Amino acid sequence: MFSGIVMTRIVFITAMINLISILMVLLSCRCINVWKLTSWINKYPWYKRYFKWHCYLWYIFLPSVIIHIIFALKIFGFPF
User: Fold this and answer.
1) In 3-state terms, what secondary structure has residue 28?
2) 37, pLDDT greater than 70
């Protein structure tokens, strides 16, 4: 169905989407804001607008992970 180079590109692109989206999810999560790195951000109004998108970011992250797993297994196979 897909050539090897196309599948490799899909794996790479979904890996980048995974990295960006999980960072966005983690930065928008109030449970993790106990970290000293992100606890100061709660008081800003733009963060409150950004936090509203937290649940929707999961709809980007999870399908991207599933697509990444499927194509990576198709290319590299199951190693065990």
Assistant:
1) coil
2) no
Q: For residues 14 and 71, what is the distance between their CA atoms, to the nearest angstrom?
A: 10
Q: Are 37 and 15 in contact (CB under 8 A)?
A: no
pLDDT of amino acid 76: 87
Say if residues 17 and 64 touch (Cβ distance below 8 Å). Answer: yes
Q: How far apart are CA 13 and CA 20, in angstroms?
A: 11
Q: pTM for this one?
A: 0.80
- 54-76 helix and 4-27 helix, angle to the nearest 10 degrees: 150
What pLDDT is recorded for position 63? 96
Distance (Å, whole) CA 63 – CA 26: 17
